[in-house]
Amino acid sequence: MFSQRRNLPRHYRIHTDEKPFSCVVCHTHFSSKGNLIQHFQTHTNEKPFSCEICGKKYSRKSDLKVHYRIHTKEKPFSCDVCHKDFSQNSDLNRHLRTHTNEKPYSCDICHKEFSRKTHLNEHLRTHTNEKPFSCDVCNKNFSLKSNLNRHLRTHTNEKPFSCEECGKKFSRKDDLEVHFRIHTNEQLFSCEVCRKSFSRKDKLKVHYRIHTREKPFSCDVFDRTDVHEEHRTGRPSVISDALLRRTEEANRHLTLRKLPKIIPEVSMTTLHECDTVTLRYHKLCARLVPKMLTEEHKKKRMDLEAGDEFLNHIVTARALHLVTSTYSFT
């Protein structure tokens, strides 16, 4: 029912989808003259409705009414599920989708679904590679305005996010959230293998490589991925044929503890790997000997009269015949 007869034809257009009013600029059609007038102000940039508190202007009176709720803190729309309040009905509708998991907006290219149309529009730029937001300083382009705003802080060195505990400032809110876990000792990311927890996801990712033995970083010089020792000591951790020869020759006369003095450019960890893993030496007293000595041999005590003379010879396979010909192991 309508109080005025003229409102009935306007209502009929809802059912007939008739739009007799057309914009002379962009030729968009509207069902009512009032909607056309409001639309036309987007071309003229006319904003006749002004906020009496902050002076912000709007082209539509309804937008000004919604804006006033920022000052009055009025939130007349409430969620029936979690009772959270909102200042706009559209915000409430978007929020309800977090409970229903409704995603009405779908990408025509990859069919990924979104709960908000703005998120769909942002996603489409990953397919079109469109970057409409440009930095005025370095002319770098971005697909999202929020990314541009973050980038601008690299030029201004602005850090608007401050830690309430220690006062440290950050240019990004997510960096502040990660930092704050230092104070709360909150560790949200847990390893599924060993249950060790971490405060940062990237730390967990690095930790997983202990279990998967993944080594994604390769040395450009030696084509090796085992470069952890270089990072810690600055000395190479590459086991080459030349290094094996030097290590084996040195082991004929030296203990493992003295090897780094003869080969200082290689880390002690790598030298140990050469001896015990690659060359398969075993430690006998203070010296390294080949694994061809049996467990029984290694348990037997040497003749006390031999003393250091024995240790000076039984260090490599070359000297093994001195042992078998001079001493009895049975």
Automatic annotation (TrEMBL):
InterPro entries: Znf_C2H2_sf, Znf_C2H2_type. It is found in: Nucleus. GO terms for cellular component: chromatin; PcG protein complex; transcription regulator complex. Gene3D superfamilies: Classic Zinc Finger. Coiled coil: none annotated. Keywords: DNA-binding, Metal-binding, Nucleus, Repeat, Transcription, Transcription regulation, Zinc, Zinc-finger. It holds the Pfam family zf-C2H2. Residues 1-20, 21-48, 49-76, 77-104, 105-132, 133-160, 161-188, 189-216 form the C2H2-type domain. Belongs to the krueppel C2H2-type zinc-finger protein family. This is Gastrula zinc finger protein XlCGF57.1. It comes from Araneus ventricosus.
